[in-house]
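Entry 14. Ran structure prediction on the chain below.
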Amino acid sequence: MTELLKKISYILFMLFLISLISFLAIHAAPNSFFGAGELNPNMTQEAVAALKAVYGLDKPLSEQYIGWVANIFFLNFGISFVSGQEVSSEILKRLGVTLVMNITALIAVFVISLYLGIKSALHYEKKSDYIIRQISLISFSMPSYYLALLFIILFSLTLDLFPIAGLHSIEPKDGLSYYLDMTWHLVLPIGVMVFVGLGSMIIYIRSLTLEILKSDYYYFAVSRGLKKKELLRYYILPNLLPPIVTLLGLSLPGLIGGSVILESIFGIEGMGQLFFMSALSRDYPVIMGTLMITAFLTLLGNMVADLILLKLNPYMKRS
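Output, structure tokens:
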């Protein structure tokens, strides 16, 4: 219980720092929504000033920040400059698909890289090891936006297997067909996220497994005549899982950040696309709300990873 309270306190402190830095950075950026040509050019300065008063932008920065932070506790991120709707409602409409994409990709990366990394180490310097290493190197060096374009050209335009963009077909579907149609549209973007995330993870797991295979306790287990399944279950996996869980927790920001590019390319109405469009239009309330939700999810994911580590290794120092 004490450890959980420490983690929650850490999350709250980090959210405070992120909110402060993000708020100052956004307001220090050149231009603004009200001066970037987004409004009617015939609007008078008095009308612009009245709009700023409606959104509270005429107040000092310190007063704006305090009011914004106070509203965050009630999940009130303000009103969008562009749509005029509540930021929280816009984020909630798009949050689900982004979470589905990132969680699915994270689980797939974990399972596939664990299998390929261990297999590569167990077949050291053999053909399968060479093939897996080449795949991991290609994955590690492949930009997500470039791979997304290749997937669209190959699987959508050439083979016509998957849709080019969007989250649903033109014809509306109901019931189970609705979710199957959504899954069909998400295959390519999730596939890109998985392939790009495999490279570093496979290399890391392969390296860890090779160290385990060279250890004294593994040689002792082999000398006892244990089968391969027993060696894998009792000696390799228990020593691999803690560092892998740590790396997965650290990879969360990269996955969430990568969805900004992929959702824009594939036309998926998620948080990534919302953030990208808001940045183009300088919709500061939406930008700040998206940043805070993303930071919270990242910190929450790291906390869950730490708690899983404590469960896997109860003797780990609690700090």
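The mean pLDDT is 84. Will compare against last week's run tomorrow.
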